[in-house]
Amino acid sequence: MGIRKEIKEKHKEIPALDRYELLSRMRQAGSHRNKALIALLYITGARVEEVVKYNVKGELKGRPILKKQIEIQEEQMVVRGVRCLKTKNDLKRRSIPVVFKQVEQPFINVFLGYIKDIDDDSPLFNITRQRAYQILSRVGLFCHWLRHSRITHLVVDYGFSESQLVKFTGWNDGRVAVQYTHLNVTDLIDQMKK
After folding, report:
1. What is the domain extent for residue 116?
2. Global pTM value
3. Which CATH number goes with the domain that contains 183?
4. pLDDT exceeds 50 at position 137
5. Whole-number Å distance between alpha carbons of 161 and 138
């Protein structure tokens, strides 16, 4: 079995973290910036490279998210202009909605507390992706686990369909979304009771 296939097989076995475990790990992250990074990656389901700069052969690339890209209203937040990492068109952008639900409120509060003092033209996280990976690994996380957990929570808790996941994540098609709608029997029973 090739290494890529082996990683895919292991990925199927990785369970989504519940929110309490995510909160516990986020609180261990140290600085307010580190906590806010984990909170943003979780609530948006974004990839690290979509949020910060990254090094390619010693050259900084990427467009980190700026404060002015975040639109906050009473019960919701929209992160506008996030680049879609996996598309061939580098100019493709998407908007990520976040509704302030009770279960996600601790993540949102940490993030909003962090951005309060940042200038509009400043990047939210003026770090490279390598530094972001270090921050996550210190608390026992990796970037795709946050994304996997968020997408799983959207399916289980909010009943997102494949087409809604495609729109939320910026995927080109629904093939990956089919894998994320991996509800087990108890999830199906809970959904039927709603």
Report:
1. 3-193
2. 0.81
3. 1.10.443.10
4. yes
5. 34
